[in-house]
Amino acid sequence: MNAIDQITYRARAGADGIVIIQTDTTIRDHQRAARWQRRLEPWLRAGRCPGCAYLDFGQEAAFIRFLATTGKRPGWESVVVLAGQSAELTGTYALELAEPGEPGTGYGDIRILREGKRPGLRRGNLETRARSVDASAALIAALAHGLQGARRVIMPGPNPGLAEAVTWGFITIRRMLGDIRPVSFLTSASGNIPDTDVPGILMSFRADVLTALPPDQGFIALAADLAGRFADDPGGLRQILDDYGLPAAPDNSGRIRQLLTLPPRSQPGNASRKGTATVTTSFGGPAGRVESAAPATPTVMCPICLGDIADWSALEYWRWDATVGEGDYVRIDIPSDLNPTQRARFTHGAYVRCPASTDMTTVAHYLPARYGRFGDPVLLGFVGLTQSGKTHLLASMIGEINGLSGYGMNVTELDRATHHAFLEKSVKPLIAGNKVLPGTPDDASTTLTDAFIVRQANGLERVVALFDVSGGDLARRDSTKEFLWIADGLFFVIDPDHINASKVGDDTFSNVLDIVSHRPKEESAAAAIVLNKADKARFEEPIARWLRAGNGTLDPTEFLRESADVYAYLEEHQAMELTKPYQACRKATLHVASPTGSAQEGVEKASKYPRGVTPMRVLRPLVAMLAMTGVLTGPQANQIGV
Amino acid sequence: MSVVILSLSGLPAAGAEQAAAALLDIDSGGPDRLERLLVLDDTALLGEHLDVYEQIDTAHRVEKLLCVTVGPRPGDGWRLELPGNLGGVQGSPVLWVSRPAGIDWKMTKELVANRHPGFTPTTVDRHPLIGLLSVEEMFDRVHQTFLSGVPGRVASPGLWLAEEDDEAATFAGALTVAIRRVCDRGPGLDGPFAELMPDRAGRARLTESGPLARYLSRVGEQDRAARQVLEKITGFGGLLRRGDSEVRGYLAKGSEALTDLRDLVDQVLRDADVAGGVGDLTSNQQSLIRNAGLEFGAEVTLNPAAGSAVYVAEQSAIYRTIAGAVHGGDPIPPVGERLIATEREVGRKGSAAYRQEIEACCPSSLLAALTSASQKPPRRAGHAETRHELGLDSAMAAAKALADLIVGVANREWSPAAITSGELVRAKAALDGTSRALGGFASEAAGGRGGTRAARRARLGESLVPVLRDLVLRVVAAELASPSASGPEALRMAKDRTAAMLTEWTALVQAEGVTARPSFASGDDRDAAHGIEDDVASIRDALLYPVRDEMWQLCSPTDLRALEVDTPTLSIRFASRLTQETLRSLPGDEPVWTSSGSFAGVLRLVPLRAGIAVSTWGKAEPESPSTVLER
Amino acid sequence: MADVLRFRRVYGGEYEEIPARVDDAEFPAGELLTARTVWLEDGTPSGLELIQHRPVHGDRRQQGYLRLDNEILAGRRLHQAASWSGYPAEVVRLYGDESTSADPFALFELDHGDPLREVGEYLLNDAFDQFLVGLLTGLCWLAGAGIAHRAISPDTVLWDSDTGKVRIADFSRSAPFGSARTPVAGSWAWVPREARPETCYGLVGPTDDMWAAARLIYFVRSRGKDLEDKGKLGELGLSQMFNGLLEKIFGPPEDRPTARDLVEHGLRRHHILPSLQDDGDKRLIQGRTSFLKTRARVHPDAPLPPDFWDDVIWARDRRGAGGPQGGAG
User: Fold this and answer.
1) What is the rounded average pLDDT of the residues A38-66?
2) Phi and psi dihedrals of A190, rounded to 5?
3) Fewest Cβ atoms nearer than 10 Å: which of A93, A157, A606, B315?
4) Is C99 found in the same domain as C120?
5) Which of A316, A337, A368 is where one domain is finished?
6) A22-26, A613-617, C167-171: lowest mean pLDDT where?
7) Domain for residue C176, yes or no?
8) Phi, psi of A413 (to 5 degrees)
């Protein structure tokens, strides 16, 4: 019997709509032919001409070529189907075959049977196009979805020829990675694609889809790296993947870990980030099931106890359960046989417990599960004298955090519950209620106020954590002191009323400055010196001008001018002590900001802001800080703070 | 003999009888004659007052009786029961006023009633209808009309009265109309006022004995002398050569004179220059101009008797120009714009700026040619050709051009009579200030306008326009007579002056009526009759009012169904005898010319539908309403 | 019983309390401010008469606060520019303010004169010259104070025909140089393109007012007409009068001449004008220079951006002369 059979179908308009009729086949067994038609009919109706489909049913596979249409549904007039064993009739091979009517090895050619393993006539064209710039974006998206474990991928329908090349490249790279899971595809699909269970991944290109569902940035970066290498040198890619043991990886997450260890490409556009995890590690299995060969995710420091967490991906997941007693964290048991999507659903909104919690001396404390998934979080603290307005600055900053999109940043809260709680407790009362917020209690320890996942354009995601530090005597509390040693950035918050020698001599500030100035320069925190409550000096120069300067841009000159002018203002008021961070820190800027836009009425804590609350220039210090800590990158961002 | 009123309304039977007796009984102080008796009664009391009416009937003293019964129909509200001697075929006429306040109603089958604005008299005897019927001529005509034309002799009266406006409101409204005419942007000429342009207003000329005129005439003399010689030469066919030297001599002298003229013009333009044209001539410059032989005609010859500043101002060219435009019907805005257009033309730039034109008027090359020794009259050339070739024509033209140039510059730059930019701007400010003050008055008046009829307002407004124009011009004259220190001050002064004159005018109107003429109105009385004519016009409107149109019908909306709208409408027009002459030619029936009262208008009598009015003496039902009516 | 007004005298005095009689009748002062008359007790029988501006009540009060701040900032800056003395007669004078309470106010000396909208078309030739010099001097003072009025029009510029003085009023939309331009609502006849809501861009600078000022000069010269195209400037002799500079005002703000340019190079007058931002800029430049020295120590390899000094008016005016000495770091 033929290893690969051929069937021809035609579409006819019948009383009940379109009827698909088998007109010819090499299959002698009528029952088998009928079974193929039943199995293929929904796919025949889903496809369009020009285009093709490959369906890997496991043991068997079918390749459908849709031919000349009259414009009537189902979008073709006749189809030619090749049906056979999946091992014989692979997706790439089927694509490489010459189309009906084309000369050379193709349909109805007996040589298929004997020379089935020989590269098809179109292979060269397919490879060239798959490596072309045209195919790059679609190929990266397809690979990213694949790496993320998606089962059904719908792609925008470029021209069918390009779709075939992208699909060919996609399957080829997956095979290089050692991923042998079945791949089915339709290069020109209608809206109603059957979801009958073809195993593995099904990729459909649809003309009515404009953009594909975006995968996680981390996967995009990896996919881009692979696609780039493939475009440069497919042989080289195969070689390096073999060298790094990709084909031997036990599963997808193993493959991803291995991919993260690839050395950087020399060409621009390299997305590999040596040593820094940029993809969610929730695909990693529980501790113990990780291949010992696979490198562990890098150490993340607990922002609460400041202890190191060695392998974030090995931590167990917890969920806050309000029904337990007065509410407590309960462990989440994740079945081991879940696919990645199911697992992601399971762990959504989960927390991890800091390992230090097991230490008898440390109170159990938990962090959002995503906290450590984006590499080292960026820790930013607000320090300043009591009543300097740290809490208000932090609240108005978070209230306006979406304004970062104006600088090309995408911001999402790290933990919805924490963010919501802060909005309710501080942001809404201030911005909507015009209420004066209570200051940070002197005895409070340094606490994580809120955290965000920040991404610049299509860059990498970073976690940015904001800490409100008590305005009391920092020297008294070791944890706070410790925080000053490890913080990535510090906002030095100054009240214009405090700009005089006596206040500058205050322990709090001098202690902070003392620590900051003793950190090695290259490891020191970035500093943003904020002349806060600047509305008090809104009629003075240069305050008036900078308060009215709007949101501004990322132009480093603008940051430098503001820094120079605020520096000059402090100098004019003999407050040079407050400019020390500029000299002590690796990078530093100076700013004016007004979290409320006007002064409160009276001095009572419970009083209000009679003019309403209109924050001014509160995002500028944060933007500068994000640039100085590497969250924002690029030639302009790199110049900010120097 | 006047109309006697017997008011029974509100009186019980006894009281009514007593009142009637007092009137009818000759011996107990009743009037000698009762030619016209107007009985006022309440519809609801007619039944109670049957005896009174019987008494009137049997007293045989009343020649003509009219009854006005007030109020809705009693009982089932359908029939109007009347005493036997009222209504019907033989009874006295009855005017049924079912609602003294009445309604506004157009006589159609739709029977749609609108509320009638205005006050309602508290007592019937003060109602305008009663006042109207109290006039003898009116009483008689109404009585006669009922007897001759009103079926059943019962009708609902409707009134259309010529409005008696509040004088102040009328005046304010009319003045607003006039202000719009005078102040609103309307059609008018544009471009500068030619009569104010320097060449017309400057009145500069060359003094006959002055150097400029002398040089000019000398050029002419030499030209004439040369012409004579040339005629001889060309006359003898150019055979005599002796004339050549003579011609050359004249040419040289002419050239000298032209050179002198050119130099003098140049010197005066240079030395009498005022930088940028801003500022006045010094006394030296004035004498330089005078000595060069320029003089300026006096603007007006003033009548020494009438030498007031305002009088002088009113003789000025600028005033006369503005007055001409305003009296000619131009609204203020275009007149103001023309003043500004003129201002752009009269701008001074200093006489030195014109020196460059000298060369164009009299080219140096011309002077050189005239004095050239090689000048010889051409042989065998025609006379005109010879003049041209010798440059005589050009010399004359150049002299004329130089004279025109210096006179033109004198007009624009030096003439005390020329209109200055400042005068024009102040005059514009005065016009605008007046316009703004008048506009303010108009907007206030518009806010508080009474019920003055638009037609009357418009007519009266028209008659006020000339007086208003006098006001505007008086303000302009005042500004020209004592110029303000600045344009804005001129604007302010004009506003104040206008406000003061409006106050004077309004007060006068309150004292003497809308026909009063304020002090600033010009002497002629072209509008003397505007007041009376306006009133007559208002009366004419009333008399010509279509009788079936909406008017004040003295009945209630519910009683409209009782009125017969299909029959031809009977109406009586009335007006004061004072207007008889003016309105004699009015088309239609002769109005009633009343000897007293200020009433004018139309009384409409709408008969009742058959079967509504029933005349009876007793409580017994009449056979049928129709028989009663047809009897 | 007289109220007591607590306010800060702008010559730099601290808050002081002075009994005052306050007129209850309020009248509008711009869109978002109301005004009323107050008489401060100064020993004279009638007291010192001033105008008090306050934010409107209701839902636009917050905008009113900002407008009032603008007036106070402009007033204080003008006092500084005038070195607390010799306050320019060409701008309305801020007498004092109370800027911290929930009901803030500014006290202005009485405006003399009428809006040019009312009287501009009646200025005689000699008055026009006074107007020109007055307006440009006033604008030089604003530049000297580092303030752009941003609402110059026949409604905000007054003419006092008794004294022949221009007075620039209503600073409620003014802004300091270097601040971001915010859109200005109003007639396009008086709002330059860079400040219109649809096309607003850039930073406020010393030529922001020149566009409207040039139109105002035409308005008065043409006796009340709006400028339709700049070709008409020649018809009224303005092109020659300003030596061709006036036309340049209708280009982008970066290329416009300043008020000082118009006086010195346009009218070619040697008029006594306040120097542009000298004190303010000198302080700013000294401060920045000091910062740059520190920066050079901390970041010895960091170059100074070439456009660093571009926002300093003092440097602007001397562009080509190398900018501030020592500032180049």
Assistant:
1) 89
2) -85, -175
3) A606
4) no
5) A368
6) A22-26
7) yes
8) -70, 145
- For residue C159, give the nearest of B340, B422, B488 by CB distance: B488
Domain assignment of residue A75, given as a range: 1-121
A568 vs C72, C180, C284: nearest CB: C284
Here the tokens at position A628 are 């100085």
For chain A, what percent of residues have pLDDT higher than 70? Answer: 81
Do the domain assignments include residue A173? no
If asked whether residues C118 and C262 sit together in one domain, one would say yes
Is A157 part of a structural domain of the chain? no
Residue C20 lies in domain: 2-109
**B69: closest CA among B621, B615, B624, B629?**
B615
> Are A315 and A456 contained in the same domain?
no
CA gap A119, B53 in Å, rounded: 134
Q: Check residue B342 and report its DSSP letter.
A: H
Angle between helices B211-235 and B392-409 (to 10 degrees): 160
pLDDT in tens, B38-52: 999 999 999 899 999
Same domain for C159 and C26: no
Decide which of A347, A368, A389 is a domain's last residue.
Answer: A368
Per the structure, how many domains does chain A have? Answer: 3
Looking at the complex, report in whole angstroms how far the Cα of residue B425 sits from the nearest Cα belonging to chain C. Answer: 6
Nearest one of B456, B453, B433 to B502, comparing CA atoms? B433
User: Is C187 an interface residue toward A (CB < 8 Å)?
Assistant: no
Distance from CA of C64 to the nearest CA of A (A): 10
Domain end marker among C86, C109, C132:
C109
- Enter the tokens of residue B246: 């003579």
- Look at B196 and B568; give whichever has higher pLDDT: B196
CATH number of the domain at C33, please.
Answer: 3.30.200.20
What is the spatial distance between Cα A9 and Cα A11, in angstroms, rounded to a whole number? 7
Q: Do chains B and A touch (3 or more CB pairs under 8 A)?
A: no
Average of per-residue pLDDT across A523-552: 90
Residue A505 CB neighbour total at 10 angstroms: 10
Domain-embedded: residue A240: no
pLDDT tens across A438-479, in order? 876 655 566 788 999 998 877 788 899 998 876 555 545 555
Residue of C nearest to B490 (CA): C122
How many beta-carbon pairs below 8 A join chains A and C?
A: 89
In a domain, C314, yes or no: yes
Residues 164-203 of C with CB under 8 A from B: 164
pLDDT tens digits for range C294-313: 999 999 999 999 889 888 75
pLDDT of residue A103: 53
Looking at residue A2, what is its pLDDT? 53
Instruction: Quote the CA–CA distance of C95 and A259 in Å, as a whole number.
Output: 73
Same-domain pairing of C133 and C247:
yes
Residue pLDDT, tens place only, C60-106: 898 899 999 999 999 999 988 887 557 889 999 999 999 988 889 99
Asked if residue A537 and residue A388 are part of one domain, the reply reads yes
Q: Is residue C105 domain-shared with residue C119, that is, in the same domain?
A: no
Chain C residues closer than 8 Å to B422 by CB: 124-125
Report residue B324's pLDDT band, with 50, 70 and 90 as the boundaries. very high
Whether A150 maps to a domain, the answer reads no
Q: Using the beta-carbon criterion (under 8 Å), do C72 and A539 form an inter-chain contact?
A: yes
Q: What chain B residue is nearest to C115 in terms of C-alpha separation? A: B488
Closest approach of A502 to chain C, Cα-based (Å): 22
Co-location of C151 and C236 in the same domain = yes
Please check whether residue C135 touches A, CB under 8 A. no
Considering its fold, how many domains does chain C have in total?
3
For residue C11, is it left (φ>0), alpha (ψ between -120 and 50) or beta? alpha
pLDDT tens-digit series, residues C11-48: 766 788 899 999 888 898 888 999 999 999 988 888 99
HSE, CB side, 13 Å, CA atoms: give it for residue A617. Answer: 30
Read off the CATH number of the domain in which C173 is found: 1.10.510.10
C96 interaction partners in chain A (CB closer than 8 Å): none
Span of A134-143, A352-361, A581-590 with lowest mean pLDDT? A352-361
pLDDT tens by residue, B564-581: 988 888 999 988 776 777
> What interhelical angle do B421-447 and B317-327 show, nearest 10?
30
User: Average pLDDT for residues C148-174, to the nearest whole number?
Assistant: 95
- Same domain, yes or no: A460 and A413: yes
| Cβ neighbour number for residue B360 with a 10 Å cutoff | 10
